Amino acid sequence: MQSNQQFIGAGARELRAFLSGQDPVAIARGLIGMELTTRTDGGLTSGFITETEAYWAPQDRASHAFGGRRTARTEPFFAGAGTSYVYLCYGIHELFNVITGPAEVPHAVLIRAVEPNLGLEEMLRRRHMENLKPQLSRGPGVVSKALGITRIHNALDLLDPASPVQLSFGRAPVMAEDIVATPRIGIDGAGAEWASRPWRFYHRGNRFVSKLNAFR
DNA sequence: ATTCCGATGCGCT
DNA sequence: GCGCATCGGAATA
Length: 216
Known about the structure:
single chain, alpha+beta, DNA-binding
C-alpha cells in the first residue's frame, strides 16, 4: 500500500477494511491525503492529513500500548480499527491518533499535521490567529487545537457518520513518490532501535508539515 | 501518597 | 537555539 489512490469514491466500509487490514506503517502512509472532519458548536472544520506517524505496539517501545499494556488510558487501542485515541501530552497538548488493526491489536497512527480545508475562519479563531500561516495546523498539538479536538473525543468511532470527529478518504490521492519517510519525532526515550525507524510520513512540498526532514 | 517525566509549542534571544 | 509551562498516567513505596 503506497498511497490512498485506490480509495477514491469509496466509503466508510472500504475505509474500515483498509484500517483493519494493513500494518500500521502502511496505514500511516495511506492516511496522507485523507480528510479529518470535526463538528462542534463552531460548525464544521476539516483538514487533509499531511503528516503521520505509525505506532506498532505491542512490540514498539514508543507506543503507550507497548507490551500490550492495558489500562483505562490505553483501552481505546484495543477497540479496533477506526477508533480515536486522544491523550494529554506534556500536560498541555491533546494529541489525536487513529487506532488501526483488528480489535485487540493495539496499532495506532498519530496525526501530526493537516492542510486546512473547511471552516478556516473557525480554525483561525481557535488558534488565535489573524491570517492563515502554516503553523495553524502543523504539529500534533495544534492539529487538535485547530480542529477543536479534545479528550472528550477519545474512543470515538471515526467512521460513524454520527460521530463529531470523522475520517474519510478526502480529495485527490497523494502518490507514493510524494510521500517522504523519516524517523519519528520526540521518542528518543524509546531507545535507538525504535527511534530510528522511518515511521513518520509527510506530504512532500506541503507547507503544512511540522518539521521538514527531521532526522535525529 | 509520592515521584517522575513525556508521541509539544511558544516566546524570546 | 533554548527555557519553560503544566498535569495526568503509571510505576514505585
